[in-house]
Each structure stands twice: as C-alpha cells, then as structure tokens.
C-alpha cells in the first residue's frame, strides 16, 4: 500500500513538472525528482498509454506572434436526449476542427464551446451553419474574445518584478 | 577637529566588516551575471498575500499597532505554531511580532546578556549572530562544524565549550549557509545538554518549512525546552516575503516581556502593512507547498550538477543552499568566488564569510530558476576546466 502511495506521488510530481515545462528531457526530469532516467521513461509511458497525458503542446500568444485568429465562447442550450443525455450532441460538436473545447456547464446554458477561426465572419458563419441548426440545439449565444489576460496559468502581460540584489547573506 | 573615526564606539570600530564588500559591489554592477549569491527566494510574494496587503491599505490600515503586534496576527500565529509543532504560545505575552527575524535575534541577545556573558554559536552560520552578541556586550564562543558531520553541531561539542559564563546557545537549523538539518534525536541530545547546564537556547528556525528530507522538529517542542527556548521565526523564506521585514519571537513570558521592552523603544512595532499581509500568509500553505516542491527539484539538480563537476557537495536537507567543497581547486574560497565572478560571471559566496571553518567551501543558493541553475553549472564547468 505504501509503495502505491509513493508511486502515485511520483506520478503527480511528474505531471506537475511536465505541465510547467513539457520540453524537459527525461534525464532532466530524473535529476529534478531524484530518480533514475529509466523510471521516468516508464512512468511517462504509463501515463501516455493510460491517456492521462493527452498530448504535449505549447501555450502560444498568437497576438504576439502576429498571427490573426478570432476566438469565441459559444453558450449552447441543448435538449438532452434519452439514453445519451448531453453526450451525443457534445461529441458531435467536438468533432469540428474549428472547435477548440467543449464543456458541460451548470447554469442557464448547457455547453460552453470555444471556437476559433480566421475572421469574426468565419466564426459567426460556423456557429450559424454548423451548431445552431443541430436538432438538439435550442439556442446559442456568441461571445467574441477580445483580449486574453491569462491562459493555462500563464499571465500574458509583462509582470514587473523587482530586481533582487546579487548578493545577500 | 578630531578624526571622526575617533568618535566611533570601540565595539563598533573593532567589529570587522563583511570583508568582501568590494566583491559585492562588483557583483551587483556586473551585467549578465548569474547570481547564486542570493539569500532570498526568487519567487515574488504570492499574489493572495500581496492582494490582502493592498486591500488593507485601501481600508486605511496605516497606523501603529500594539507594540506586541496585531492581536489578530498573534492569535493566528499561535494557532499555526500549535498545529505545526504541538507547542502552545499564549498570544498575549508569549509572542512578539518583530521587524524581521534579525530584530528578534538582536532583542533576544540584548534582553539576556550581561557584559562578559558567553554565547555558544556553531559555525559556519549566518553572519549576524556574532556581531549582535558583541554589540549586546556578550562574547561569542564558536563551535566549528565540519563536512564529516554534515555540518551538524554535536551535543558533546557544545558541552565542551560550556563555562560558568555561558548564558545561551544559538541554534540555526536548517542552516544558512550549509543547508544542514538536525534530526529529532540529535536535537534531543542538545536539549539534554541545555537542561543539564541550564542554558537558554535561541533557536532560529526561519528555514524550518524548507525541509526536504524528514520533517523539521521545533526545538521548543522537545521535552522541557519550551521554557528555555526563544523560538525565532518569520515570513521571509517560506512565504517569499523578505522585503516585508516580518518575524517573531516566541518563548517564556518574562523573556518575551524583556524583549518587548527594548522593541517598544527602538522599533515601536512592526509595520502594519506587513502584519496585515502576514495574516493572509498564514492561510497560504498551498503556496508554500508549491514553492517547497520547486526548491526540492532545484536542490537535486544543483547537488547532482556540482558533484558531477567534481565539486563534492554533501546533500543539504534544508534551506536553499548547497555548500560544495572547492579546496581541491587549489584556490581559497575568496579567490574561487572572485575568479569565478570575473571569468564566468557567476556569483557564489566564499564559505569563509560564515566563519573560519567555512574556508574551503562556497555557498551556492538554488533559489534561482532551473534555467539559471543549468547555465550556472555550465559556466562553472568551463571555469574549472580553465584552472586545471
């Protein structure tokens, strides 16, 4: 049992490390955790095969990159279906590549869908043509994103930080 | 007119400066230097704490507080200490909020020392205990610790230094600059000596929460030690709040009262903004845990890196310092630090700054980012190849 807890702790620690920086090498992670590189490889392989780790990607500030993208959060009101509830419609919406995320939420609306496109028009048409007409969808409300302040735990603005002294005893 | 220096008090004049002030200035001005010479976290104070402070300013909390510190803070602190150590301190009379742990150490020494009283201090250790002892009229009796004992002070070493003038023992673990910690059993042996010889113990536990192997034992929690211990701690290291200058002392009512007497005349009270922030800090254990795990990762990378460069480094179990052995480079610790700074722009602190027995070692802090640790290790490697 104790071993199991230890293993679990290692997994959690490794996930925290990777979430912060997925580009670290196995050797670097091994040094940080004080374990063998082989063990790092094994744990990561396990996490990947269990699909705990879905994929490795970068958090990109597109505005800074000079790549114009438009994103919108769509509140979608849905009539749930017998047997499958919200799942079948949510999965259906998820399959569009324009859709970045789909979440079931509490409150006035049921699904919160993040859609991205090149222009506002493109996003608006996508919603009007692909989401709104779905049989189970009763209503949609589109919020275009105007500015991102924080994404995936990263604050986008330049956070000023006082400079430490080079030497303090 | 006489020279101004003739008018400066002898005890101040005779106190050696840090000796490497010039080195500090060069390091401070150098561009692109990587500093492993820092004695503070690289994290900014967690936002929750900063935000609580801003809110307190908006609400108009800008006055003096009680000399003891805000009662709300003392109560919260008393609860926290009890939860963490099992020792209960009465928030009214056994706890004093100070302007950093430095002030608390000074108050403790001044409150207890008569001229000629001796204070036993293990070295290498933080640089201010000896001057504070001397300024308070006392004499420091040093116990050298060595790498063969992983820089742990042993009870019998303390016992050997006890004379009829010995008033107190200063304990500072987890230790700056070595990162050494003492186990419960080792502390108990020291407690036995303190009991037998009726010593007061000033236990500076400011790095207590930064313990990576085993758990930190509060000296006051040991049998019979609450009455004999002046527990010093503060918010600087664990909560990344160095610039807020907030610490505290906890102990026997009479000694805390005596410390308060000095404190009320020289400091009046710790700054209220820092005290308001500290109340919030005590609710931020998750943030502390997050920072401690990150220090632990850096510690492993640093120790591993130094050892693989041939700078043998015992495993520090607390604080955020490594203390590698550099004598086999043929350089003194001051030469090593100076040349490393000029040749590769990496700042480390010569071990000799922390006591004569620190010679042959340098202090490298790992309170810097993973990236900086990596870069610093590469530069040190180049430096070592250059002097071979």
Fourth CATH level, the homologous superfamily of the largest domain in chain A: Lrp/AsnC effector binding domain/regulation of amino acid metabolism (RAM) domain
Number of H- or I-type helical stretches of chain A: 6
Low-confidence stretches of chain B: none
Question: How large, in whole angstroms, is the Cα Rg of chain A?
Answer: 21 Å
Oligomer: heterodimer
How many strand elements of chain A? Answer: 6
The CATH superfamily of the largest domain in chain B bears the name: Type I PLP-dependent aspartate aminotransferase-like (Major domain)
- Tell me the major beta sheet of chain A: 4 strands, antiparallel
- Helix coverage percent of chain B: 40-55%
Approximately what portion of the residues of chain B adopt beta-strand conformation?
A: 5-15%
Name the poorly predicted regions of chain A. none
Classification by helices and strands of chain A: alpha+beta
Structural class of chain B: alpha/beta
Instruction: Give the helices and strands of chain A as they follow along the chain.
Output: HHHHEHEEHEEE
> What spatial order of strands do you see in the largest sheet of chain B?
2-8-7-6-5-3-4
Tell the overall outline of chain A.
extended
- On the 0-100 scale, what is the average pLDDT of chain A? 93
Q: If strands are numbered along the chain, what order do they take across the biggest sheet of chain A? A: 2-3-1-4
What tags apply to this protein structure?
heterodimer, A: alpha+beta, Alpha-Beta Plaits, 2 domains, 6 helices, 20% strand, B: 388 residues, alpha/beta, Aspartate Aminotransferase, domain 2, 7-stranded mixed β-sheet, 3-stranded antiparallel β-sheet, 13 helices, globular
Description of the structure:
The complex is a heterodimer of chains A (169) and B (388). Chain A has 6 helices and 6 strands. In chain A, the strands form 2 sheets. A 4-stranded antiparallel beta sheet of chain A has the order 2-3-1-4. Chain A folds into 2 domains: 2-49, Orthogonal Bundle (Arc Repressor Mutant, subunit A); 62-147, Lrp/AsnC effector binding domain/regulation of amino acid metabolism (RAM) domain (Alpha-Beta Plaits, 2-Layer Sandwich). The longest helix of chain A has 19 residues, at 2-20. Chain A has helices at 2-20, 26-33, 37-49, 62-65, 87-94, 120-131; strands at 70-78, 99-104, 111-117, 137-144, 150-151, 154-155. With 169 residues, chain A is an alpha+beta fold. In chain A, strand 2 (99-104) and strand 3 form a beta hairpin. The longest helix of chain B is centred in the C-terminal third of the chain and has 24 residues, at 285-308. Chain B has helices spanning 10-13, 21-29, 47-58, 71-85, 100-112, 129-135, 155-160, 184-196, 253-266, 272-281, 285-308, 333-344, 370-387, and strands spanning 34-35, 95-98, 118-123, 139-144, 166-171, 200-204, 229-234, 247-250, 321-322, 346-347, 349-350, 362-365. Chain B is globular. In chain B, helix 6 links the parallel strand 3 (118-123) and strand 4. Chain B has a 7-stranded mixed beta sheet with strand order 2-8-7-6-5-3-4, covered by helices on one side. Chain B has 2 domains: 4-43 and 286-387, Aspartate Aminotransferase, domain 1; 47-283, Type I PLP-dependent aspartate aminotransferase-like (Major domain) (Aspartate Aminotransferase, domain 2, 3-Layer(aba) Sandwich), CATH 3.40.640. Chain B is 40% helix and 13% strand. Chain B is an alpha/beta fold and 388 residues long. The A-B interface holds A 13, 16-17, 21, 28, 31-34, 159, 161-162, 164-169 and B 18, 23-24, 27-28, 30, 33, 35, 37-40, 42, 44, 126-127, 176, 243, 293, 297-298, 300-301, 304-305, 347, 349, 353-354, 370.
């Amino acid at each position: 049992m104790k071993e199991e807890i230890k293993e679990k702790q290692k997994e959690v620690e490794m996930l925290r490390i990777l979430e912060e920086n997925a580009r670290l090498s196995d050797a670097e992670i091994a040094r940080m955790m004080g374990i063998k590189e082989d063990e790092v490889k094994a744990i990561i392989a396990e996490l990947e095969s269990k699909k705990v780790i879905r994929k490795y990607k970068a958090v990109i500030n597109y505005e800074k990159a000079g790549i114009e993208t438009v994103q919108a959060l769509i509140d979608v009101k849905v009539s749930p279906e017998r047997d499958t509830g919200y799942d079948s419609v949510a999965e259906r919406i998820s399959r569009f590549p324009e859709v970045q995320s789909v979440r079931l939420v509490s409150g006035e609306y049921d699904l919160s869908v993040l859609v991205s496109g090149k222009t506002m028009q493109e996003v608006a048409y996508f919603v009007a043509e692909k989401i709104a007409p779905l049989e189970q969808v009763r209503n949609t409300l589109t919020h275009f994103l105007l500015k991102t302040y924080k994404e995936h735990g990263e604050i986008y603005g330049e956070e000023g930080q006082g400079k430490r002294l080079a030497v303090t005893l | 007119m006489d020279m101004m220096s003739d008018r400066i008090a002898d005890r101040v004049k005779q106190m050696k400066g840090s000796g490497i002030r010039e080195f500090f200035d060069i390091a401070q001005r150098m561009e692109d230097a990587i500093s492993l010479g820092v004695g503070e976290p690289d994290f900014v104070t967690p936002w929750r704490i900063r935000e609580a402070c801003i809110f307190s300013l908006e609400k108009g909390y800008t006055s003096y507080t009680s000399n003891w510190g805000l009662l709300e803070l003392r109560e919260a602190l008393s609860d926290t200490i009890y939860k963490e150590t099992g020792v209960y301190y009465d928030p009214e009379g056994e706890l004093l909020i100070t302007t950093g742990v430095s002030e608390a150490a000074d108050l403790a020494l001044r409150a207890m020392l008569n001229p000629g009283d001796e204070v036993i201090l293990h070295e290498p250790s933080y640089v201010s205990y000896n001057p504070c002892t001397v300024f308070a009229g006392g004499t420091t009796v040093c116990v050298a610790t060595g790498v063969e004992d992983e820089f742990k002070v042993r009870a019998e070493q303390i016992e050997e230094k006890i004379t009829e003038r010995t008033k107190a023992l200063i304990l500072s673990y987890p230790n700056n600059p070595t990162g050494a910690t003492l186990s419960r059993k080792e502390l108990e042996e020291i407690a036995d000596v303190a009991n037998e010889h009726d010593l007061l113990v000033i236990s500076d536990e400011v790095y207590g929460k930064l313990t990576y192997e085993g758990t930190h034992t509060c000296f006051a929690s040991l049998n019979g030690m609450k009455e004999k211990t002046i527990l010093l701690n503060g918010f600087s290291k664990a909560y990344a709040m160095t610039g807020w200058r907030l610490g505290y002392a906890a102990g026997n009512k009479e000694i805390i009262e005596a410390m308060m007497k000095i404190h009320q005349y020289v400091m009046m009270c710790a700054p209220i903004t820092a005290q308001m922030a500290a109340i919030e800090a005590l609710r931020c254990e998750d943030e502390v845990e997050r920072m401690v795990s990150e220090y632990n990762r850096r510690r492993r990378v640093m120790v591993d890196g130094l050892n693989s460069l041939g700078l043998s480094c015992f495993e520090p179990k607390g604080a955020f310092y490594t203390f590698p052995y550099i004598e086999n480079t043929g350089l003194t610790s001051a030469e090593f630090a100076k040349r490393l700074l000029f040749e590769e722009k990496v700042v480390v602190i010569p071990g000799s700054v922390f006591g004569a027995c620190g010679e042959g070692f340098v202090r490298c802090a790992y309170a810097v980012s993973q990236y900086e640790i990596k870069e610093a290790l590469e530069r040190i490697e180049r430096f070592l190849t250059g002097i071979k």
